[in-house]
Predict the structure.
Amino acid sequence: MKILAVDDDPMMLELLEATLSSSGYTDVSLASSAHEALEMIDQALAPYRCILLDIQMPGMDGIELCKRIRAQELYKQTPILMITAMTERSFVERAFIAGANDYVSKPFDPFELVTRLRLAEQTIQQNRVVAEKIFALQNLKKEYENRNRFAPDQAISIQDIDGVVDEVELENFVLQMSRSEQYNSVAVGFRIEEFDGIHARAKPSELFLTLTDVAECIADQFKQSNFIMSYVGSGIYVVLTHRASPALTDDLQRQIQFAINDLGLEYDDGSQCRVTLAMGAVKSKSLFFGGSPTATIHDAIESARTAISPLRLSHQGNLHSIASA
Amino acid sequence: MHQDIVLERLRARFIDRIAKLKPDLGDSFEAARHGRDVTANLTTIMSESHRIAGLAGSFAFEDLGASASDAETAIRHVLRGNRDREALSQMMKSVRAMLDRMAECLRENEVRRLIAS
């Protein structure tokens, strides 16, 4: 273990070196002042694994030195032991506040010093194990994200929300409906605006959660009547419901948007993930004209694809007013 | 074995240091007692007491280490502005005790040296 010992008394440094060496710690560097220690730390090819500091030294004392060492990224976790003849509690407390891990009183008992060093060594190993686990977990997460990456236009399966099914199931459901049931049904599509931007920025897991949250907000508005809905890719959802569904009001898009805003969606880095929903026209099947039973769904999807949210409409209106003013 | 040799050498150097320091600290103490450069002289004694307190015990001079620690604490108390009769008396007593211990430690060492020779 590479150790740095700092004390202004050369005799104390030699005593430390001899004690450590007799216990097998032979890689010990000695510094007789805080400035010399900082220089040695700067120039070290490999970081010191443990640092022993005297508290009372002329010029910069051990507490200030401890603070400066802790401020360096490489030494955030390195065990720092204070070796001090200062019996006053306030000095020891200040040392701990500055980032020291432990302290040994002078005159030090060699057995105690070595025991504390061994504890420090264990801490290093535990930190290393934790760091390795974190690293492995990050890699696993990255691998998972890469494996689960999906194209913006891909229809992914949203689970565990009542009424939400895959696109194929939605179509199968429509295909088994009677003609009158088809007539009594309407389809309406919703589209997340600027979905490509969100897709490019969010990790697959984040995007999946966002799509699930938005699906839940839409489903919540329709839950008073029978409905079935699906996510069809490109940020588009399609809902099939009864012609007389109480959800189908002029206020529907606004209610869903409120619910989405209330979620306070965020990216993993904590920045806001703005989701604005546009709603397409409500589409229904003519009683007299035939055509594919699933045409209503496709019409609703196409309508959603070109729909514009009221927010954007009002923004465009404002721009128009400014331009024409 | 190697460590014993190193420790024996360090012990010898520590005694040399005590031998050199004792008269110097005695002079600083007398000067401070007579009001000359009180703060500077007391600071010198305090800082040397601190060093002795840290090392003496490692060379089997526990009493000297303890008295040096007392002297350091008492001087620090006075240097922080506690100049009442009790604080000053405690400081003088503890510095004198440390100087006495230093003398004792040198005598002990002399006896040991004579026996060894």
